[in-house]
């Protein structure tokens, strides 16, 4: 296998195949961000537990901490031992150089993110990146982003995000760039408000807009900023045309809370794997519960409480 081939080696299904199959089944593919091996282990364990495919994501910051090639090698190794499809996405990639780095490292997908630029510039830079990564490997799924949904998978004081995307913008952007997958602004927002972390408030989506954008764009759609979204809105968003759902802050909250608890349990404990094992389990519960929801399965109230 050359560096320019995707990481898939144990299954014939490409990411495109899996997305097509899930769309027919009325299900969404869960995308979960990882910045370290604890989070990666949790996502892989959740995929094994639920027997559902996952898209593992790492933004530029997460890739810098993990190492893009090192993460790709670990996912390749996990995939060789997994019965369920595991894919890898270079999330929120803001330069051609970083998109190419991920493509050459063997990522299955690249989220090309020039959404902070004016529309025409976003079109030009995205088109250039799509052509460059497809030249490395045409099977790589190229995602483009439009609109403003704020930045950072963090706990926030106030809501972020600007104007929602329109079906016309979506149509023009897809036609001009050649992307396989579009991430629009449809009421979603990166990160969570404190009230969302406490389970007192939920994000709500513009479901009618999703459906209109799907018709106009005619490609796969990704929902970014999934953490803290109302369960019913997730189900309806998938029915309206969302194919991939990104969740990050919920995992980070579970990671932080369980790590605090684990460290406080015994101040003399110094064995990393004893401290970190409960952290993997807590994050895994969040991922499994979201995966079941995205696949139309009933989620137990305890699992929802864990998410909140
Ligand atoms: O790309 C990552 C996400 O869009 C995650 O957003 O932190 O609100 O779940 P979130
Ligand atoms: Zn995102």
Give structural notes:
The chain contains 13 helices and 10 strands. Helix 11 runs antiparallel to helix 12. It has 308 residues and is an alpha/beta fold. The protein is 51% helix and 14% strand. The longest helix is centred in the last third of the chain and has 23 residues, at 272-294. Strands 1-2-3-4-5-7-9-10 form an 8-stranded parallel barrel, surrounded by 11 helices. Strands 6-8 form a two-stranded parallel sheet. Zinc ion is lined by residues 92, 190, 224-225, 246. Glyceraldehyde-3-phosphate (G3H) binds at residues 33, 91-92, 153, 190-191, 224-227, 246-249.
What keywords describe this structure?
binds zinc ion; disordered N terminus; single chain; disordered C terminus; binds glyceraldehyde-3-phosphate; two-stranded parallel sheet; alpha/beta
Query: What's the helical proportion of residues?
Result: 40-55%
Would you report the number of β strands?
10
Are there runs of 5+ residues with pLDDT below 50, and where?
A: 1-10, 303-308
Choose one word for the global shape: globular
The order of strands across the largest sheet is 1-2-3-4-5-7-9-10
Output mean pLDDT.
93
**Class based on secondary structure composition and strand pairing:** alpha/beta
Task: Supply Rg.
Answer: 18 Å
Main beta sheet strand tally, sense and closure: 8 strands, parallel, barrel
Strand content: 5-15%
Order of helices and strands: HEHEHHEHEHEEHEEHHEHEHHH
Enumerate the distinct ligands. Answer: glyceraldehyde-3-phosphate, zinc ion
Task: Calculate the terminal CA-CA distance, rounded to whole Å.
Answer: 42 Å
Helix run count = 13
